[in-house]
Design brief:
- It is built from 3 helices and 4 strands.
- It has helices at residues 58-64, 69-74, 76-87, and strands at 2-4, 12-14, 22-25, 28-31.
- It has 2 domains: 1-48, no CATH class; 51-89, no CATH class.
- The chain is 28% helix and 16% strand.
- The protein has 89 residues and is an alpha+beta fold.
- 0% of the residues are buried.
Amino acid sequence: MLTESTHQRSRVTVDEMELIEAEFHEGVLRPMRRLRLRPGERVGIVVVRRPDPLRWDLARLSRVIQDENALTEAGLAEWETMLSSEDER
């Protein structure tokens, strides 16, 4: 259960956590099953994306990048921007 801090409304503490599958469609995150929540109850959400096998094919990546320092040298910011633009397609 997530409870609000009395000092800051945007902070929560984690007493209990449950994994809920959800689908994001047209700006709305919809759980795949009914949740046991009261109407109007506020909750905190941690979003964990499922890996895209085309994007995170470790065998393919290991052939392309022989040295793990190569990503750092290539510029992680540019790499992150490229991956984010792929997600928006």
